[in-house]
Amino acid sequence: MSAVRELQARRLAGTVVTDDDAEIVVYAHGSPDAEATVVLSHGWTMSALEWRPHIEALTRPRPGFPALRAVSYDQRGHGRSTRGDAPLDMALLGRDLDLVLRRATNPDDGPVLLVGHSMGGMAVQQLAAARPEMFGPWVSGAALFSTCVQDVGAVPFVPEGRGAQRRAQAERIVVDGLLRSAGWARTVHRLLTGPLSHPSTAPLWNVLFGRGPQTDHARADAHALRTIPPLTVAEFFAALATHDCVGRLGALSRVPTRILVGALDSYTPPGQALRLADDIPGATLHTVPKQGHDLPYERPVLVVETVHALLRDLRQRGESAPGAPRELALDSGAER
Questions:
Q1: 221 — alpha (psi -120 to 50), left (phi > 0) or beta?
Q2: pLDDT by residue (tens digit) across 222-253?
Q3: Structural domain spans, the chain
Q4: Which of 36, 72, 78, 263 is most buried, most CB within 10 Å of its CB?
Q5: Taking the model in full, what pTM does it have?
Q6: Within 13 Å, how many C-alpha atoms sit on residue 247's CB side?
Q7: CA nearest to 277, candidates 305, 242, 252, 240
Q8: Of 180, 170, 230, which Cα lies nearest the Cα of 202?
Q9: Cβ neighbour number for residue 264 with a 10 Å cutoff
């Protein structure tokens, strides 16, 4: 199926309009009568289209596994969603996710599970920090892939040295180059992505995202990165540095939470995942060998397995169908 036909095949759930006039496009897949709803939050420079294989697997019944409902959305400034007028930071993306949940999910219909990759995982954390009352009554579980609680791109517990200096230098090159001029932007795009046929051979790609399989998905990432406006790329890259949820994730300890990271991830490395797990009592941490930062897309089956593991966790806790308290009704933002 072509990309155009795949786009048309998605079911438009609606467009959420934020206070700063960003239009967040939301899609729904599967039956509204499904046992649970999975909300998928993508990472930097990606879009809701990245979740196609996961959605297909989650919404299709298999022996021993129920068909679930899946909700995906384009982060502001990505895919079909507009940028809005507000200064970019990670807290803003948490508020966007809040509106998406209210637009497309109803906890009275069954558990709502959040899945976030990288920047999308930070949005889940920001929601937990800002709206802890939603976790338990509305959000029943969370899976965080290739993300961190603070200091994105930094390697915790490692003394300042050549590796950390190289990474910091690479980050400055990306941001400064993208913001400086159109010519610089094109140069940085190519430094980052390298040859589109084999982008993961580019040194800057490896410094930022880590080594890993050279797959079709890495090539698709490189093509997508070159099509996004350079200023948008730079703005969001800089906004990632504002993420800090240390000591603010108690709400995630109320629900089953699973954290997965690739052993070869340089951007949100295993040390960062350990810090995140330490900040969420009861969270389960899994490090996946031979995988880099694109873990959920390189290994889509892990997302599906993790979602079903969250459902098993819920059944064991006897919380398979939590209700939504009256005070959590829609009370902010506009919708179309």
A1: alpha
A2: 666 666 777 777 788 888 988 999 999 999 99
A3: 3-154+242-335, 162-239
A4: 72
A5: 0.81
A6: 0
A7: 252
A8: 170
A9: 20
